[in-house]
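Listing 4. Sequential folding, example run.
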Amino acid sequence: MAGQRVQRVAAPLRAQVLEVLRQDILAAEFEPGERLVEARLCARYEVSRTVIREVLRQLESEGLVTTVPNRGPVVTELTAFDAKALFEVRGALEGLAGALFAERATAEQREQLGKVVRRFARTYRKADLAERLAMKDEFYDVLIAGAVNPVIESTLRGIHARVQMLRGLSLQADGRAPETVRELEAIHDAAAVRGDADAAREACERHVRNAAATALRELAARQREDQDTDAG
């Protein structure tokens, strides 16, 4: 399994490895439940055990890695129950963030939200998964900043980290990306253009409900495939 070579440039080496390994997990280079063996990771990314251990600790704090007794670190494997619980909380918090953005965001933040949405609409067809996720992250960065609530910010960022793999499943599903564009445009219109807090809350909650339905469906399909493979 050939990984991306880590470039030794200005950014700290640990930060580079963290970003590359995070993207490899999100791109399913490592399967859910797969052991992350330090020696193999050192060889893959050409770095020391110390760097790998620091990176794994950070990814564990983000929810992408889980330490299992007698096995060590593995790629986190979310159950359907876990995923549903995360999406329920995410929907409530993003709805509140959207409503607060409509009430509190600056003119600059409103314009920035529109720029992100328009770029996503222009480029999603040719963008790969990493690029789509990066644009979604930028969208949420602006939305959360405009909500001006540090509790929402810290809590929602933690939830987003844990559902990153599920977001990947959702964004890769057939037909989901165009739906995402329409939903983000609705959030932008309600929150940034009209400043309608109630409509912004509903648009954000609808987006999360639809993303959850798609991700849970894709998760179930992947689990069925794994079961069929094991049975064969």
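-- end of first protein; second protein begins --
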Amino acid sequence: MRVHVVSDVHGNAGDLARAGDGADALICLGDLVLFLDYADHSRGIFPELFGVENADRLVELRTARRFDEARDLGRRLWAELDVDRETAIEGAVRRQYAELFAAFPTPTYATYGNVDIPRFWPEFARPGTTVLDGERVEVGGLVFGFVGGGLRTPMRTPYEISDEEYAAKVEALGDVDVLCSHIPPDVPDLTYDTVARRFERGSRALLDAIRRTRPRYALFGHVHQPLARRMRIASTECVNVGHFASTGRPFALEW
């Protein structure tokens, strides 16, 4: 059995259409939407609406962790734009989702990332794509558990939830063979981004579940340039499956 796993797709529909080649199934750990590409500021919803110069400024402020100033910039730009904010964002997200969901092979098992908008997914998930969040599925004799979204941060991305709500989803999975999430367990080597030079939020509930239930694998994404891409916690192999938007390569899991 061979399963390919991707995360942090961020608009890369071309490579996504080939991500399942040679595999029995594809798993997607979220972040389909591209609001702003930190490597190429001309890509994403934000520069489409406000231009590259404003995207440059927003990235500068966020990288410097000047989040209040970044939010002030956003409010000013939206006030100057002659269009309803919600309508503009929803239209752009729907255009991206239409292309990305059409690229999923059959079968695909997917969960949400922190920049995704879950309420749109039923509109685009076709037969052959199973969306799971706080739920389990058996694939090739192994039980896979899925936990979507991220924890609350100053970035205020669309699908951030409280630690308590996140922990409840982890608890609902019980014992699984493969624990799949968008964010990593709360381990410094797995949460530190070496390019952004900051710690992203990892989940203590995931870490506790790994130590308690000892799945074979814990698979995740979210941290684009991690200090450590994989490490072992007790008997569990923890793997950051990679920043698919930039690599275009899935992680392969075989058994």
